[in-house]
Specification:
This protein is α+β, with helices and mostly antiparallel strands and about 400 residues long. The protein has two domains: about 180 residues, no CATH class; about 170 residues, no CATH class. The protein is about 55% helix and about 20% strand. The strands form two sheets. A six-stranded mixed β-barrel has the order 2-3-10-5-7-6. A two-stranded antiparallel ribbon has the order 8-9. A hairpin with a 2-residue loop joins strand 6 and strand 7. Helix 2 packs antiparallel against helix 8 and helix 8 runs parallel beside helix 12.
Length: about 400
Amino acid sequence: MLLADSGRFAIQAIISHRLRSFLTLLGIAVGIAAVILLTSIGEGVHQFVLKEFTQFGTNVIGISPGKVKTGGQPPTGFPTTARLLTIEDARALKKLPNVTGSSPTVWGNSEVEANGRLRRSTIYGVDADFINVFSAKVQTGSFLPSEGAGSSRAFVVLGSKLRKELFGTENPLGARVRIGGLHFRVIGILEPKGQFLGIDLDDTAYIPAERALELYNREGLMEIHVLYKEGTSSVAVADAVKKRLKLRHGREDFTITTQEDMLKTLSNILNILTMAVGALGGISLLVGSVGIVTIMTISVTERTNEIGLLVALGARRRTILGLFLSESVILAVLGGAMGLLLGIGLAQSLHLLMPTFPVHTPWSFAFIALVISGVIGLLAGVLPAVSASRLDPIEALRAE
């Protein structure tokens, strides 16, 4: 039998039992749609999280006090021999080759009072390099002055939301603001930055790191962020940072994290999450494959006479095997195509209903889904097809 004739034979068998065939491929369609929808959500979340982290640039290195391999920074109140990170450390790192900025960082949460209004916001203690390190932009006024130009003076730069909450439409430049027990003068407003993983980056205030240490009664920095030139090896810069700090501290009592390492780890975690979510949808595919096995087994029983006639006319066992396998594969592929359209449609509908919800369906997922449906049809049709090919032709012709 020619391959084209075999295909037509299988399609005619499917058409002759429309309702049964539709219900069979519907099982596969629901499974494929579930996998497409869930993996689209997982991939969308994956890209959203990575985009959130890369908005600050990928050529940033973070240094935090304490060595992770030996337990990290000890809890507050416990004695430690580890040397804390200082503003002088940050200044020393600015002088390294290929380093274009180094910002000390201290943060906390304090009440901010101005213009007769009170609000609790996140306060960051940084220096002039912060704006370059984290790709921030000044909307009005200026950012904190650079080293040697009054860098520790009582200046504050407000986030756009904090400015609106405290001053409304008024111009806040030059106004006095009380943060905790200290007073500051507003010298600038940052452009809106939006949210970062649920954290409002605009409901913030930026003050000199020296003032933040005083405000929160801290002896050392929480972190130092180093910006290096594009195209420079992060490994080389991290090695230079490590050598400089070991020279200053006498040993390696700090932890260096490159943006590349963080994104790689994060991407691996999110990939596992996407696979796990897709596997949940795969349970529906398993149910669909059981449906194909059941229907094809019933089909073999119903068409015993037909099989006997084909064998009597000279059809080989492998021809019978191919006929039933192609029927199950066609059912599965049709179900896969239907499920693919349904899954993409549901994903896009979800995105239209909730535009902020991250949904993304790569074409590779669509191709893999079709291949999987075909493989499922092939595997699910093996037992019924083998059973049909092994029927005794005489007994098959006698069957009613």
